[in-house]
């Protein structure tokens, strides 16, 4: 048991089945589906449903069930996953240097027929271009753009066309080392990338020209592993091998500044996820939601973040934060590679993790 | 692997006599003592072991890292013979006994095989140590011109995982690891 926190993290489901390290999890944004990927080259799909408890509505239980496994055909590890905002298309990033695009027949653009996620998932497109391992993939909030990154130091931006057709809009060669992660701003078409070169780069599209890097964020002392924008898009969080999380604030349209550093881990922070959370008290003015963080120390921290009057100078606003829940050895002795909040309405207190034990776990944050 | 000779005249050190008889904890059923016989079999067995048996630096050194071989010029030598690794270079985190740092010393500051040597040490420990151990591998401070880059690469789990999916690299690695577990005195016999 960890010390006193206002919230606690309860296990909801333990999903086994991968035969090797599980690297990443992704929630379908529109349907009750959770997916995971692994060094075993498979993608596993789970559904979940609520069993209501009429006597105590707050104690409804969630049931997860494995529905299908996609044997991706990737020649190497499947490192990362991304669902399109429509929830119809799943992208896979693999160490075989390719991005796979998966969907179900007849579920492309229209709403043809009943949705049956247990049916066959087909590889609709294979995006080739990266020279070495792909490490991350992400859809923009509109679903019109897809970004991918690789050990080849590049970030590629793809435009999504009908019928699973993709057009490369730009190859960004800004980083001097492996690019570990890409993340899109939740509202605008701003892309962020994190690298083994210890920096974060921010990119936008110049309507007259091409995509370009408008800012480099430096400060981390080692590899930047993961990125997460705040749900309102005013802040960006980054996590690093230096064991810290940095928070960057958008101070001008094209200018971001470091405002604080969160210290709560002992080893590399491999993954962070920023969700809207569920306010603890009645006072949620200025709340920025909950940030979940995890990594090589096997600890999951839930940070409550807000933007309010500074304690030193109440006339100034500043980032306020605290750890509201924590769990150690969440995957027993193993590293945790990924933590992701469920993006669906009503499930803001639910998140999933993937570990070196090959297990995917689902957790719920509840009052202590 | 490049055929370039980084250190044409390496100093070869006499291996220390095996100290394992001195260890009172080295019971006949030690997970380490039968390592030799089983080295060619499924080493995955060890991964299943959650036996919280005490393991010290000599034990990790003796059966895991010191006996790793590198092909150097025409010679094949162990890391112990080259004094690349030694027992005192294996240290335990005082707060967490399952967190280990293994330091190694390249024979020359421009040794181009250092990444490979570090990777072979990592893989050997991945295969032989119980899973609960978290291992950091570092070159001895000041011993290599690319010290920072080496340390960073050897401790990036994603890069290590990708390297182990590279068939050409794994083939060379397996050659290096094939004699692991044998002590120097057994080699001479």
Automatic annotation (TrEMBL), chain A:
Q: Does the keyword Repeat apply?
A: yes
A GO biological process of this protein is: iron-sulfur cluster assembly
Protein origin, superkingdom: Eukaryota
Which keywords does this Swiss-Prot/TrEMBL entry list? Repeat, WD repeat
WD repeats, residue ranges? 15-46, 71-102, 127-160, 172-203, 217-249, 350-368
Is-annotated flag, keyword Transcription regulation? no
CC per GO annotation: cytosolic [4Fe-4S] assembly targeting complex
SUPFAM superfamilies linked:
WD40 repeat-like (SSF50978)
Say which family it is in.
Answer: Belongs to the WD repeat CIA1 family.
Give the protein name, as stated in the record: Probable cytosolic iron-sulfur protein assembly protein 1
What organism is the protein native to?
Ganoderma sinense ZZ0214-1
Automatic annotation (TrEMBL), chain B:
UniProt-listed GO biological process terms: protein maturation
Protein name in the entry: MIP18 family-like domain-containing protein
Q: Which InterPro entries did the record assign?
A: FSCA_dom_sf, MIP18
What family does this chain come from, according to its entry?
Belongs to the MIP18 family.
């Amino acid at each position: 048991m960890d010390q006193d926190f206002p919230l606690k993290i309860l296990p909801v489901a333990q999903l086994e089945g991968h035969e090797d390290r599980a690297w990443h999890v992704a929630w379908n944004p529109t349907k009750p589906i959770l997916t995971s990927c692994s060094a075993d080259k498979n993608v596993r799909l789970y559904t979940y449903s609520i069993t209501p408890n009429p006597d105590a509505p707050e104690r409804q239980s969630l049931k997860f069930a494995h529905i299908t496994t996609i044997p991706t055909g990737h020649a190497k590890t499947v490192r990362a996953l991304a669902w399109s905002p429509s929830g119809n298309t799943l992208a896979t990033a693999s160490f075989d240097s390719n991005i796979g695009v998966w969907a179900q027949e007849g579920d492309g653009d229209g709403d043809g027929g009943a949705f049956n996620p247990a049916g066959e998932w087909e590889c609709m497109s294979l995006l080739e271009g990266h020279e070495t391992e792909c490490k991350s993939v992400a859809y923009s909030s509109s679903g019109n753009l897809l970004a991918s990154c690789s050990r080849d130091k590049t970030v590629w931006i793809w435009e999504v066309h009908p019928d699973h057709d993709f057009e490369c809009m730009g190859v960004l060669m800004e980083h001097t080392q492996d690019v570990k992660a890409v993340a899109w701003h939740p509202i605008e078409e701003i892309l962020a990338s994190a690298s083994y070169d210890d920096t974060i780069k921010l990119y936008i599209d110049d309507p007259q020209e091409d995509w370009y890097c408008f800012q480099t964020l430096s400060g981390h002392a080692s590899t930047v592993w993961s990125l997460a924008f705040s749900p309102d898009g005013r802040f960006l969080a980054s996590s690093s091998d230096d064991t810290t999380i940095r928070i960057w604030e958008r101070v001008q349209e094209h200018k971001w500044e470091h405002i604080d550093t969160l210290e709560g881990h002992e080893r590399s922070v491999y993954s962070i996820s920023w969700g809207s959370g569920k306010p603890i008290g009645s006072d949620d003015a200025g709340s920025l939601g909950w940030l979940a963080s995890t990594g090589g120390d096997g600890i999951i921290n839930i940070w409550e973040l807000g933007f309010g009057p500074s304690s030193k100078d109440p006339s100034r606003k500043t980032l306020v934060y605290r750890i509201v829940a924590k769990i150690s050895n969440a995957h027993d002795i193993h590293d945790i590679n990924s933590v992701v909040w469920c993006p669906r309405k009503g499930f803001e207190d639910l998140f999933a993790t993937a570990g070196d034990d090959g297990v995917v776990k689902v957790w719920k944050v509840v009052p202590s | 692997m490049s055929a370039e000779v980084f250190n044409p005249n390496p100093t070869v050190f006499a291996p220390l006599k095996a100290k394992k008889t001195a260890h009172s904890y080295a019971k006949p059923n030690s997970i380490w003592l039968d390592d030799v016989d089983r080295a060619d079999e499924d080493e995955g067995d060890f991964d299943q072991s959650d036996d919280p048996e005490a393991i010290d630096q000599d034990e990790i050194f003796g059966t895991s890292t010191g006996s790793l071989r590198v092909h150097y010029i025409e010679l094949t030598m162990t890391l112990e013979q080259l004094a690349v690794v030694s027992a005192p270079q294996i240290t335990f985190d005082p707060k967490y006994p399952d967190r280990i740092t293994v330091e190694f010393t390249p024979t020359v500051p421009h040794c181009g095989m250092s990444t490979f040597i570090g990777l072979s040490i990592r893989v050997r420990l991945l295969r032989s140590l119980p899973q609960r151990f978290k291992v950091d591998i570092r070159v001895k401070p000041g011993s290599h011109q690319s010290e920072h880059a080496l340390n960073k690469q050897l401790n990036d789990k994603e890069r290590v995982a990708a390297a182990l999916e590279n068939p050409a690299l794994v083939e060379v690695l397996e050659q290096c690891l094939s004699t692991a577990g044998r002590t120097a005195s057994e080699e001479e016999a």
